[in-house]
Amino acid sequence: MSYTYILYSSSLDKYYVGACHKDLDKRIENHNNGRYGTKSFTHHSKDWELVLFFHCDDYSHAIRLERKIKSMKSKVYVKNLVKYAELREKIFQQTKSI
Questions:
Q1: CB contact at 8 A, 3 and 20
Q2: pTM above 0.70, yes or no
Q3: Burial degree of 91 (CB within 10 A; 0-12, 13-18, 19+)
Q4: Residue 90: what pLDDT?
Q5: Would you state the torsion angle of the CA atoms of residues 15, 19, 24, 27, taken in this order, to the nearest 10 degrees?
Q6: What is the maximal distance between C-alpha atoms in the chain?
Q7: CA-CA distance, 38 to 21, in Å (whole number)?
Q8: Residue 25: which of 45, 47, 5 has the closest Cα?
Q9: What is the pLDDT of residues 15-51, one digit of tens each?
Q10: Which of 2, 44, 87, 90 is at 20 to 30 A from 38, Cα to Cα?
Q11: Sheet of 14-20: strands edge to edge?
């Protein structure tokens, strides 16, 4: 199983978009424990919470979806993804196959 996920840190008031092909809970735990090194974006906080995730058919789809969300470069867009199911479905289908 593969996932694209969005984390939120209230202390930073920032979102983080990522993808994984393993245990999503473990991945979030690793972000909060600083296991990805001091140069990773998520190292700056330990209060990352999962606000949204997409269950993707394969890892390549998860990566395409992650890149599409990141390409929007908009906090407002991420907030709208969390809020509106139709927007989530649209971006999920757009990135499903190329």
A1: yes
A2: yes
A3: middle
A4: 96
A5: -70
A6: 37
A7: 23
A8: 5
A9: 999 999 989 999 999 999 888 888 888 988 999 999 9
A10: 2
A11: 14-20, 2-9, 48-56
